[in-house]
Design brief:
40% strand, Peptide Deformylase, peptide deformylase activity, 5-stranded antiparallel sheet, alpha+beta, Formylmethionine deformylase, 5 strands, 22% helix, Peptide_deformylase, Peptide_deformylase_sf
């Protein structure tokens, strides 16, 4: 279901709860909302009103990827980025890393399965932005 983007700072500033396999429908809603937007390249669950640690982003092929409980485990090549956000009016300067390794869960066969991924460039930046959202950091 396509959801409205939340801009309420009280909701966005609260850290998200860990996701479980029962939260798979939130991942589906994230993908549908992401694909319906002309502006979005990534979304976190709290941006659609769900306080679960789930993110979705468009990979380099333009296909949506959903990550449950993502965490950056390694980061290289720091830089300063000025990021816009669908939930905020003003762009924000933040430190990002051009290369990250992320551990996360993916939904497969009705359960969450551990996974890891190396990301660079735009995908790395998008996932770091979404993880900030999950941690209640307003970007």
């Amino acid at each position: 279901m396509i959801k409205e983007i939340i801009t309420d700072e009280d909701i966005l500033s609260k850290p998200c709860e860990p996701a479980t396999a029962e939260d798979a429908s939130i991942g589906t809603d994230l993908v549908e909302t992401l694909l319906a937007s002309d502006e979005a390249v990534c979304l976190a669950a709290n941006q659609i009103g769900e306080t679960k640690c789930i993110v979705a982003y468009l990979n380099e092929a333009g296909r949506p990827v959903v990550m449950y409980n993502p965490k950056v485990t390694q980061k290289l090549k720091p830089y300063t980025a000025v990021e816009a956000c669908l939930s905020r009016e003003e762009p924000t300067a933040v430190q990002r890393y051009d290369w990250v390794r992320v551990s996360y869960d993916r939904f497969q066969d009705g359960k969450l399965v551990p996974a890891k991924k190396k990301l660079e460039g735009n995908a790395a930046q998008a996932v770091q932005h979404m993880i900030d959202h999950c941690e209640g950091i307003l970007v």
